[in-house]
Design brief:
Blueprint lengths: L2 H23 L9 H4 L12 H28 L4 H8 L17 H24 L27 H17 L5 H4 L6 H36 L1 H9 L10
């Protein structure tokens, strides 16, 4: 197997793993909480309505579309007979789309990003499993709510946010850095490419800041609901997002 073939295989495999991981993190495991469970919390998030579901849904489609384009480019490099199909498709977004095919490659940053994304996706999935029906996007205390303190929640108190941050960071390291189709093809120099990059950066930054403030709110709500049980958990698990740091 040639080096080009190996690079193409790894780019496709690890890129799709990273994209699947961030998609998992942006997919709610349960339906929206009913208004009756949200009314006790005067959160500004309630004013967002369905936007907390629409934005992730649109973002996921965009992320998958980007990796579909990179996969198309890599397939065209490995199988020249597909170029008559790939070239007109990719030329909708960049000029001379096939001129940079050999520059798409695996880099250390790409590998690190795919690992981060996979770890983040796994953490988030475990949180979905461990919280079950209690996991909602909205601030809620559900009927027969219980405080989950084992599994991922024995390392930090809000691991689902940790997973989301890792996956988002990892995805950006795979999609936007040197060796990626977005960068090597010149797509990031186009209006659409720049808009996508800035929108992704804005969404990622908002996610990071939001997570820091959201976990404080959740701690306050859980402490008010569970009292001494929460205090014992917080003493045993003192960190919110990152062990020994925060």
């Amino acid at each position: 197997m040639s080096n080009l073939t190996i690079h193409a295989f790894h780019r496709i495999l690890y890129g799709w793993i990273a994209t699947f991981s961030i998609t998992l993190c942006m997919s709610p495991p349960n339906p929206p909480a009913p208004p009756s469970e949200q009314q006790r919390f005067n959160s500004w998030e309630r004013s967002l309505g369905n936007h907390i579901y629409v934005v992730p849904a649109v973002t996921k489609l965009a992320f998958w579309f980007v990796w579909l384009l990179e996969t198309t480019a890599l397939i065209a490099r490995q199988f020249p007979w597909t170029k008559p199909i790939a070239e007109p498709t990719l030329s909708l977004f960049v000029q001379n789309p096939l001129s940079s095919l050999n520059a798409i490659r695996v880099t250390p940053v790409f590998l690190a990003g795919s690992v981060l994304a996979a770890i983040g996706g796994y953490i988030r999935y475990r949180c979905y499993e461990e919280l079950g029906r209690l996991f909602t996007y909205e601030l809620t205390i559900r009927k027969n709510h219980k405080l989950v303190t084992d599994g991922m929640y024995s390392f930090v108190r809000h691991p689902s946010y940790t997973g989301g941050i890792l996956a988002f960071t990892g995805y950006m390291m795979t999609a936007f850095t040197q060796g990626s189709w977005l960068r090597e093809s010149g797509a990031l120099e186009t209006f659409v490419g720049k808009a996508f990059a800035y929108a992704t950066l804005l969404l990622a930054s908002s996610t990071y800041v939001y997570s820091v403030f959201r976990v404080r709110t959740e701690d306050r709500i859980l402490r008010a609901e569970f009292g001494a049980q929460w205090d014992e958990w917080a003493k045993r698990v003192p960190y919110r997002l990152v062990p020994y740091i925060y």
